[in-house]
Specification:
It is a single chain. This protein is an alpha+beta fold. It has a domain of 122 residues: 2-Layer Sandwich (D-amino Acid Aminotransferase, Chain A, domain 1). It has six helices and 15 strands. β1 and β2 form a beta hairpin. It is globular and about 50 Å long.
Length: 256
């Protein structure tokens, strides 16, 4: 990795220059952060699980015509992705009241919302990624009206697809955070899904017990973070059981 040019390093991933123009290599770290990086830890194996889960989700979203940056997985921790210009907004889709929404609006955590709610946060670490309105986005030019429409439409499609996918394996999709980028192909530009989809960026609860299978286990000092991520991978069929009954993370080409 030292011979490659680093483009960007974030809290959980590193981006390197890709092998071809218009590509990047996305490396998943084991670092875990919360509360705008005030809380930090290294969780062995988290990056490997997130790489594999994000590949699974991006591949399946691409199969239902939701454009995204994923090209292929390279190894246990790396993906080849399309280079995009990240739109400086986080899009949050909420199905169930939890986290900051419960605190902000005084809604009991776990209450099902009347409909899926889309929220936007301005990507600015030093400001704590503040919640912003569509008026802010338009006034400050963070995204064009068409990009805003595309992000909302795609986010709701992602929500519909993932809600069904997770429900099929006994998991409730409470909420999730995604990002979008501008992908340029010659003179053409389109808005595509970027970053990652993993238990780092989704709230995932067991349908029957409401056990948390996501990053809240780290935020709330519940322990068992990588074990919960592994359980998500197991239910999605990413982790297989060998003849001795031990779990094996499947990294074979074309694996599910």
């Amino acid at each position: 990795m030292s011979r490659r040019r680093k483009i960007y390093e974030g809290k959980a991933k590193i981006l390197y220059e890709g092998p071809e123009p218009g590509t990047l290599i996305q490396y998943f770290k084991d670092d875990a952060t919360a509360f705008n990086a005030e809380k930090k830890a290294v969780l062995d194996g988290k990056g490997v699980l997130n790489n594999r889960i994000s590949e699974f989700m991006m591949t399946r979203l691409g199969a239902v015509s939701i454009p995204n940056h994923f090209i292929k997985r390279l190894n246990m921790r790396e993906q080849l992705i399309r280079k995009v210009e990240i739109i400086p907004l986080e899009v949050i889709v909420r199905n169930v009241a939890a986290g900051s929404m419960s605190k902000r609006l005084g809604i009991e955590e776990g209450e099902t919302l009347p409909r899926a709610i889309v929220e936007f946060c301005y990507k600015k670490d030093e400001l704590g990624d503040p919640l912003v309105s569509e008026e802010h986005i338009a006034a400050f030019g963070w995204a064009s009206p068409q990009e805003l429409d595309d992000m909302i439409s795609l986010s709701l499609r992602v929500n519909d697809f993932m809600s069904g996918l997770f429900a099929g394996v006994g998991i409730r999709l409470v909420d999730f955070k995604i990002e979008f980028g501008r992908h340029f192909e010659g003179d053409m530009m389109r808005t595509i899904l970027a970053d990652e989809i993993s238990p780092d960026s989704c709230r995932l609860w067991d349908l029957e017990t409401n056990e948390k299978l996501d990053k809240d286990r780290f935020r709330r000092d519940m322990g068992g973070v990588t074990e919960a991520y592994a359980e998500v991978a197991r239910r999605l069929g990413i982790i297989k059981e060998n003849a001795q009954g031990a779990d094996v993370l499947d990294f074979s080409p074309g694996s599910k």
